[in-house]
Write a structure and sequence with these properties.
By secondary structure, this protein is of the alpha/beta class. Among the domains are: 78 residues, no CATH class; 199 residues, Rossmann fold (3-Layer(aba) Sandwich); 176 residues, Glycogen Phosphorylase B (Rossmann fold, 3-Layer(aba) Sandwich), CATH 3.40.50.2000. The chain has 31 helices and 13 strands. Strands 3-2-1-4-5-6-7-13 form an eight-stranded parallel beta sheet, covered by helices on one side. Helix 9 runs parallel beside helix 11 and helix 13 crosses helix 16. The N and C termini lie far apart (108 Å).
Length: 729
Amino acid sequence: MNDLEIHVRDLFNLISAGRLKEAAELAEVTASSFPDSDQAWFLAGATYHRLGRLVDALHAFSHAVELSHVHLQAWNAKATVLSQLGRHRESLAIVEKLLEEAPNDAQLLTNAAILQELLGDLRLALDAYDRALNVDSDWFPALMNRGGVLLRLRRPDEALEHNRYVLKLHPSLADAHFNCAEVLLALFQPGEALAACEQALSLDPHHVKAIIDRGLALAELGRLDEAQTAFDRVRMLEPSALERFVNLYQTSPTFSGNRFDPALIYIARGWEHFNYCDWTRRKAFLSQYEQLVRQIVENDGLNDTALAYNALSLPVSAEVQREIARSIARRTSAEIARIGEVPFSYRQHSGRIRVGYVSPDFREHLNAYLTFPIFRLHDREKFEIFCYSIHEGDGSQIRQRIESTAEHFRDAAHLSDREVAGLINVDGVSILVDLGGYTAFSRPGIFAYLPAPIQVNYLGFPGTMGAEYVQYRMTDPIASPEENASYWDEKLVFLPDSFYIYDNSEELADSAVARADYGIPDQAIVYCCLHNYYKIDPEIFDVWMRLLKRVPESVLWLQGWNPIAIANLQREAESRGVSSDRLKFAPFESRERYRARFRLADLFLDTLVFNAMTTACDALWSGLPIVTCPGQNFASRVASSLLAAIGLQEGIAYDLKDYEDKAFELATNRDKLEALKAKLRDNRDAMPLFDTEGQVRHFEAAYEVMLERYLSGKCPASFRVAPISTCPS
């Protein structure tokens, strides 16, 4: 046995015995003594890898493959270390090169799939797992991972089918039961998910992920004390596990938030059930909702803006909705106070009034289309306009139009709240308008820094911000009657007619659409209800089903983007004695086809608690009448405001019975329906709703009043804006 063989033998024995410190010392001697030995470098790399010295391991494995290009173990080891260092693309390049030589190697295909997952290329990952299973249908790593990719691709039914197949192959494997639980949570089946977790834990009582999922399932079922016990057990077994779980699943459909508070999870997941039109536990949920919210507010407060928005679609009191908003605002202000930032000072600028608009929606988003005419039509002799984008651009046409139209467009997506606020203050903005509020990607923290002396809540969030740092809300007398002023912490600015703005320059495209494209009979009466699913509740659905029974040749046309919601709605229709084939579903389509297809319907039926808003404007602009029934809160009164502003008060019902009667009469009296459509066509260009330039003039008049009050030292106060005629004299 030569000296190299002795070194290699001793090094291998030390590694096998776990004597890694001694192995590392010998590895350095071996590599320096035999620098041309690929085996010496490979074992050195293996030693460093075991010790967690990843950079040294990469150096050693690189030497090994340089010395022997056919050393497959060294190539695989190098790819592994590169991935552990976060250099996934380089790792994948190695694996793909190895696959050229061995295209049917199941392990290499699995490695490629794992790396594709890490790089976010889920479809390529699924393809690689499938190729591995084509080579070996029982290849365990691919079997275990494939369901997770299907879930992340939002194909939960396929994921469940696959995971149940794996469970049949490995019924005594805790991970197989856990994988099923993950998908069942995503499918909003917490009872079955809980049972799967119990099976996993009977096989492995310390399976931390199964304990976490058990806690999530229990919280979703409202068994809050048991859920807390589960999360406490995780903290005892593996204190860092919950944080890792959040980082791993924060964008997963199975995870409801960034805190393991059972009450918060119950509230968030309960609302998600409604978003999928699952009303099976609705009464129990609503009976506990207000008490739980108040309990959370009193204990720790809230920082989840989604909860504030979601609350607006629930039949709960305006006081509770406001308490949620106030709690978020207090938490936001407290965080800034904790940081101890120096308050901004304000400099008055002579000349034009500087108005800033902050939005996460300067992209392919309905709010971008709504606000674009404001920037386009502002009087540039009086106003200097700044737009601050707090979401990265998407290259869409509407984004480009806003960028080119706004006098000053600031891409602030990658700046902190403090940095955005500083930019606004340096720009000398006097009036700052929040177009996001508490919606997706909004950043109320920017406004909490008070970068401008006057701050306004408008459009994105149909409720109060509950914040002392936002002084005004743009609204109108119908959406916000004066008697509802107590629902708001902002002072109300009552615009004439309607607070909504719509771009009348965006003509309807001449898209060729036909009822046959959507499976709708030409002779049918089409009730159109293209709402977001969370706006539909069982009370209004009862009315819709009664209408379908009373009008035999009618169909109900709904959104069709979510298979779970579609199945739930079809089940609910059948339970009310209506065949599910009378529900028709429109897919997600281009804006041109989306707007054009309103022409195929006969009547738009509004929802109760949270009205159609932009969708209602699109319907009216397309010539489709609406029936609505106003409620007490702002979100339930917007459609009435829109109908009044276009002179179609006939569509505003007194109560649900009147709503049903109006919808029935218009569907069964063709002459009356056609007369209403003709009136809508005539009013489109004559009534205030679509007088876009007039609406902008009203905004400007409101801004002037706000600024005058501020400069004269007066406190913010509610006021009405007088109508301004834009008609030529």
